[in-house]
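User:
Can I borrow your eye for a moment on a structure tokenisation matter? Would you put together a sequence-and-structure record for a protein of your own picking? Please set it down just below, with no commentary around it:
AI:
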Amino acid sequence: MGSLTGIAASSGIAIAKAYRLIEPDLTVNQAKIEDVAKEIERFENAIAEAKQELELIRQKAEIDLGKDKAAIFEAHLLVLNDPELLNPIKDQIQADQMNAEAALKNTADQFISLFEQMDNEYMKERAADIRDVTKRVLAHLLKVELSNPSLISEEVIVVAEDLTPSDTAQLNRQFVKGFTTNIGGRTSHSAIMARSLEIPAVVGTKTATEEIQNGDIVIVDGLSGEVHLNPSEELVQQYREKQAAYEAEKAEWAKLVNEKTTSVDGHHVELAANIGTPADLVGVVNNGGEGVGLYRTEFLYMGRTQLPTEEEQYAAYKEVLEGMAGKPVVVRTLDIGGDKELPYLHLPKEMNPFLGYRAIRLCLEEQEIFRTQLRALLRASTAGNLKIMFPMIATLDEFRQAKAVLEEEKQKLIAEGIAVSDNIEIGIMVEIPSTAILADQFAKEVDFFSIGTNDLIQYTMAADRMNERVSYLYQPYSPSILRLVKMVIDAAHKEGKWAGMCGEMAGDETAIPVLLGLGLDEFSMSATSILKARSLISRLNKADMEQLAESVLQMSTTEDVVAAIEKAINK
């Protein structure tokens, strides 16, 4: 029995066996073998096992994630049927009496090196396919288990160093009851995805992979940030009761699913959801979302080997707009960079990727990618209430350039006889302090602001939000952050525009009372946070919260702000 403490990243409690999602040791030692025929047979059996496994993964990926995401596994199966790769391996086993593992690695490394040096993008992609396939076949030859979240078929808690967004997207809620990681923070993308999947998560434990073994019974408390290993029956019973109480509380919130979000004194605000794929709409509808405040389109580009086509994007955007049946949908244009990479773009490595070539900066440079996305969005605009938002805007000139490109594509479509909505609002994410400070000037040209607090906080506090060692500086209630938020909201209202927030702060029950008092018009959060937020706002008086907001803006520390909020809402 033992326990770890981390960051509560996704609410809920999970109790299940541990599943370590950790890369196994695939070290290969060369050896001379006596029975060549038997070694070739062993190699062919490993190939057959890998094929069978890949086919299962491909089928599951097609059902859960769609044909485009499953295409990568089809490419892997082609590699396993390629005589140009397989025959040299068998020849080396035979000619040099070499063990299959060594012959596989030698031959695969030669192909990988050859393909990686080519200018042809297709060939470079083949190098990645060969590397992945080699790893899978080696695992079968070495008799070690290769972790794969898509193959999990029993209730587990996933334990990992970290989870990439694509890893998290493949987790099956039926079996994956929670997860815990060594690194990460509340705003890391794995945590955000966990909230959208309603999977309890604790991140940033530092030592989860060292201390938890496969099969250990684990409790993940996504409410307090605690992880318990091999707990006593008494502790399990306590957590069963805590779990039941949390589920009962959720049942109470569910009664508000069809209600508007209104304070005690009748002030209405909009509670919207952050989504990553059209599949997330189920959660938005089930949780009473009044719109989509942030559609993270980068997930259309991830977990694949090439850029999505205009038609693929059009279909996804149209599905979301139709699914929301006239409710507002704010679509953020491609926000790649920082901790979100697209291997097939082959972007240069940067010293400070969060401050580098990303989001609108990349799109204005790589205009073919940008224009394809804008065309797809414009074509889909007639299917619903579309609002387009540009991320990472630092200067007015960037906004004007992006808007000009959008207008050019709109005019081209109209000239082609393609219908485009006349009522598309164009806004920006406010996530850079320079933009917040100049909000009064931006407000004259944009239709709306959406404050991206995840980045705004890290840039204002000069603290990497992915680094748990400086996580204490992720302070959404800092008076400096609240003053920036006020500047943005006031600037919007002065010009008759609306201001929303799509960072995780929008769904934070400590921040909500102050944000209500500051006059925030739209709160966009993980769908699973909506009903809890609605319940809280329905118990607040906006006039009282305005007084609270005025007082905390004059405070000097986060601790003072939190104490004032707790006193105000508990009196």
